[in-house]
């Protein structure tokens, strides 16, 4: 079940709280503890190529776009 299906399903049970609670209990998506899907870019939401140094939590694409604004210098 994808995240979008999960949200659609909860809208259907808005007026039936008992059924909604039971559905949430048994079908809730798991919280990720390991793997590539655990960390997301805070700016664009990508999963791969993360730069977590200095608490940035950005993907490499976003980092390249805003590096100079953050105070990093490009040497090349």
The CATH superfamily title of the largest domain: Ribosomal Protein S14/S29
Q: In sequence order, what are the helices and strands, one letter per element?
A: HHEEH
How many beta-strand runs?
2
The residue ranges in which pLDDT falls below 50 over 5 or more consecutive positions are none
Overall structural domain count: 2
Strand order of the largest sheet: 1-2
Q: How far is the first residue's CA from the last residue's CA?
A: 46 Å
The proportion of residues in beta strands is: 5-15%
Main pleated sheet: 2 strands, antiparallel
Q: Looking at the structure, what is the overall shape?
A: elongated
Structural class: mainly alpha
Assign the CATH architecture of the largest domain: Irregular
